[in-house]
Every structure is written in C-alpha cells, then in structure tokens.
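pasting for ref
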Amino acid sequence: MRQVINFNTKWAFSKEATAVPATMPERWYWVTLPHTWNDIDGQDGCNDLYRGTAYYAKTLSKVDLPKADQYYLEFNGANSSANVYVNGKKVASHDGGYSTWRVNITEELQDENLIVVECDNAPNDRVYPQMADFTFYGGLYRNVNIIAVNNSHFDLDYYGGPGIKVTPTIDGPDAKVEVEVYVTNENPSQSLVYLLKDKEGNVVAKAQTTVSEKKAVMEIKNVHLWHGRKDPYLYTAEVALVDGEEAVDAVSARFGCRTFKIDPENGFILNGEEYPLRGVSRHQDRWGIGNALLPEHHKEDMDLICEVGATTIRLAHYQHDQYFYDLCDERGMVVWAEIPYISNHMPTGRENTISQMKELITQNYNHPSIVVWGLSNEISMQGSSEDLLENHRILNDMVHEMDQTRLTTMAIVSMCPMDDPYVQIPDTVSWNHYFGWYGGDTSMNGPWFDKFHATYPNLPVGCSEYGCEALNWHNSNPEQGDYSEEYQAYYHEELIKQLFTRKYLWATHVWNMFDFGADSRNEGGENGQNHKGLVTFDRKYKKDSFYAYKAWLSDDPFVHLCGKRYVDRVEDVTKVTVYSNLPEVELFANGKSLGKKTAEDHFFYFEVPNVGETTLTAVAGDFKDKGQIRKVEKFNEDYRMKEKGAILNWFDITMPEGYFSLNDKLSDIMANEQGRAFFMGVMGKLMPGKMADQAAGNGGAMMQMLGSFTVVRMVGLMGAAGLKMTKEELLAINAELNKINK
C-alpha cells in the first residue's frame, strides 16, 4: 500500500547561490516548508521584489523511507518554474507555480541522497502569469511529499492527478456514479474493488472488475444531493487494486451528486432550484506570509467567507491549494476555478496555458463545488489578436473534451467591446467593471449589464470583478478616489442594489474578499497592496462593507454600526449608517433613542446630533453594536489619505486660473479640442497602439469609464500596470496643460 511521507522540514535555502551544489551546503539558511522568499519584499511596494532563481537543498537517507518499489517526490506548489536534481542529476522540470506535480526518483536513489530544487520566478515569455496586479511569490510555498508505492499503483504521472475520476449522473431520485481509475504497471491477475460510501461511512454501492476494465458504474438509490450552502452532502468513492487477497494500492475521492444549469434569464439553477450566486473572489496570500499558508489560514478564510453569507467563490487567478477546494466542497461553495492566463497574451505561452489547464481539470475534476473552468482574465487588455482567439478556442474545446459535465467562462476587461469575437467563445461570460472607482460612477454598472443582456440575450452574463479600495481613512463626504472606508461602503451599497436585483446575472463576485499583495502598487497610503478587500490583509479587521454583504446574504441575525474608526467629526449633525438583516433598527445616542427605522435594502441611515462625546448604540432585535463619535472643530488630519513616496505633492502642481492642469478631470480635458489633441498624444506615447485607440474613443467606452479621473490619479493607477512616469515628465505635461485655455 502507498505511504505518503511529509518532506517539509529542514531544507537549506539560498538566493545567493549560483549553481546546484554537489554537497549539502553549510552556510545556507534553514527553512521549513511552506516557504516563500517574497514574504516581505513582495508586499512593501515599489515593485522591488526579488524575481530570480533560488535553491532549496535537503538530504535523504534511503533507510528512513518505508520499503517500496517506487518513490515519487510530490510538489504541491513551486513558483513559478522548477528543476529537480537528485545527487546532481536533473530529473524533472516544471512550468507553472500553482499546481501539483510529481517526479519518480526511484532510479536515482542511493543510500544517501542530496535533493536540490531550483525555483525561478524571474520574468519570461512562456510561463503565465507575467503581468498582473498581484505578487508572484517565489518558492516552495506548499507541501512537498514523498509517495512510496508498489510497482503496480494508481497513476501518479498524469498532470499531477489523483488517479481516480468520479462522474455522478442524476436519474430521477437515484444517481448513477461512474468511477474510472488509471493504473500503472498492472498485472493480469489483479482486480479492482470499488466502494461508494455515504457521509457516515456506510457502503451504499460496490462493484468489482478486472484490472483491464478500469471503470465501474454503480447506483445510489434515493441519492442525497449536494445542495450548496444549504446541504453540502458528500459521498466517498474508494478503489483498491487487489492482487490475490492483498490490496497493493488504494485511492479515494469525495464527490457530490448535483445538477446545475446556467440560464441566461434566471441565473444559476442548482438541482432544479434557482440558487443565486452572490459571492467573492479570493487571493490566497497574507501579510508577512505571502503564499506560504498553513491549513489554519485556509480555514480562517473559509470561515470569514461563510460569515459574510457568500454562496460562491471565484478562486483567482490560479489553482488554489487542494485543501481549500476540499473546504469549498464541505461548506457548499459554488466555485469558479481558473488558470493564470491573465492580462498579457504571449504568443510563446500557448503550451503553458494548455498544460496549466490540463493540470487544473485533472487535479480538480472530482470537486462538486466547481461548476465552471475559467479560460482567462482580462487577457484582451491590449486588444484581441488572431493568436489570442485561437488560443482561447483551443482551450475551450479541450476543456469540453476533458470535462463534459461543466461549462467554460472567462473574466473580460471592462473596456473590451461587447462585439469582440472572443466574447462569444466560452459558454458563459463575466465582466470586470469598476464604474465608480476606476472612472465613471456607480450608476453605470446595472445599465451596462442591461445593455449587454439585451444585445446578447442567450449568452449568460455575470460580474466577475467589482470593488474599490479602502484603508483607515475617513470622510463624512466621501468621494471616488479618497480610499476612505466610507466611500467603499457607499460604493458597495450601490452595487449590491444594482447587481443583486438583476436576476439574469449568473454570478457576481466582489473584488476582493481580502486585501492582497501587489508589490507594484504605491497608492492609498500603504504601498505594496491592493486594498479592495472586505477584510484587511492580516484578516484582523472587517471593513464596514463586509457587513453590507452580510446584511443581504447571511441568515444569521446581526446588527453592525458603521464608522467605528471614524470618531472625530466636525459637522454639527452627522450621518450614521447601520447594517442589519433584521427588519428594524433603533439607534441610541448616550442612551436616548433617535428613533426606529425600517429598510428593505438592509441599510439604515440616521442623522445624529454631534455634541461633545456621544456613545452610539444600534439595536436590532436582541442584537446590539456600539461605537463613539466626538465633536471637534478641525478635521482630524489622521483621517486624510497620505501616500508614501508619492511622486507629486499637491503643491508641486501649478494651476493658473482658467487653464488646465494635472488636477483636472480627463472628461473636461477631452471635451476641449486642443486638450483632447494634446492628451491623445500623451496616451499614444504611454500605451500600446490598440489601447490608445480604445482610449481615444471609437465609441468612447474607455473614456467614459476614465472620464471622472484627474490626470494625476490616472497616472498613479497606470503605475500599477508598469506604465511609470517621473516627476519631471509629469511636471512637463502639467506645463503644457497650463497653456490650454479651458
């Protein structure tokens, strides 16, 4: 029988080494896996993280291994490319930092062995991702195992898969379950014994075949369906490879029995019932840890996602840890799983998109939580090409060939034209829209989807990303771009009302559940992060917007008083917001009732006299939440955003009366003939041709979105995409704008 031995402890590590060592190094650092070398420099901003080669080395005595015929090294995540050496000989290479892969080391093992893994997250033109708004943490950041097996064993070589494939089909009240296995080095005398067990471990079906058949179809009477958050019931399939009376290997997989449909008018249908998919996207990394997560980190993430009431998770933008997919199965999350084919199409990267997709599907086929495979994310950012279209058609056809039970989808960048031919390739589509944050205003979101739905009524459409950033900045009159918690709360209130009331949207995913590392970002006052999360990077603070979603999505009664971090206020009467999923809220100021309110949208607004120090208490049913406000004469500057390392300060920008400057909105500059000509010249120098054309108009999609940006804010956001400008270049642009009469 196979044995799995954890191989995480006492690895020697070096970023300074320049070659594979011949003996165990003496002066490297000791690390225990999971490990990343970018846990600090990948989260501090300025895009200064180390992207290159690093080495891990570990000794292995064969006597410490269990007796077996063959030994495999299993890597659950090595970012982003890796080479494996055993006793100085290269035995494997792998491209792709987020999947499981294995290498058979049997032939190279001696009594004493040196295992070296060369990891590389340096930029290249063949392995995805290469350009994206998140940190590409290098290292062996998930578990490494040794798997000891008999010569005859369930497959360990094919794209890191589990060697077992379970396909349930619902047939009235019953289910037919096809279990297929893959065997290496089988003997004609061997047989396969199949068992299906319920959640309690009782055998509900069994079968036996010769080893040559490798497939059995069994029936579960009165099947218990997997029904999302309401009832995530799981069965287990177990298969033993038997030789005479002895089982020489065994595999198992949990599975769920369910049907689903994505309807262009009625959204997601689970087991014949409408089941709205309203949820979040998740990046896996954490503050001070990067991607080197432990099981408790994954569990805490799932607990928080369940608390907010989500029914779906988009696992962006890569394959996540198997433990997290298991949690999704157990908790009833409906999942969008995708590969990191993102932002920048590389003609030399096609093979890598294919291999990463094969790994994603092969390794995750048995998870009932997964309903769609994501082909790409914002890949048309620089326009569609014939090579890009062909890459998508190949992926789409391959996915349907590998998995006939699920659908394909992709996340489309906002400025992509609706009629772009690549939009028609997958079974479903979703769009990444940030109207109200990256330009435009919040009111544009719902009508945009209505227009798309009217234009393509038979193509299911969803919203794969929407959100805005918030840190510990505060404002009683929040504005787009101020990074305040109050603006984020307002934004999500508006988006909830627009998106959740449009039944035809097959899924909506907030960007993002958690703040995450993006080392190219220098904005918002805390560099190196994207702060669109409903929860902070360290998972310690739930922003007010978290509770806006909880009010709409969770059945667990609660009340939340917003603005607890916003104590000092200058106005005589201040607005206070309360979120609750209960029908009525009463607010007390220093024990005195300010009245009761009802709200069908779960958002309760109160006008509160601001005199001296006031203790506020929000009451809904049996639930209470408290906070404080304090009257001050001057605005507390600790609440106003201060950016670290900003290229320009406000006093650097000259603003002669009647003339344009960097502080003017793009829409105003573009409405001026001279201003438009100048600005489009600047855009042409900064952006690739097709992006500049889109910005110019051709219908104005991008400019409509960007119109509410000031030039200085747009340039700051472009910096996150690698389009940097110096202070001198910006001041030169400002000087030219100062010559253009409004």
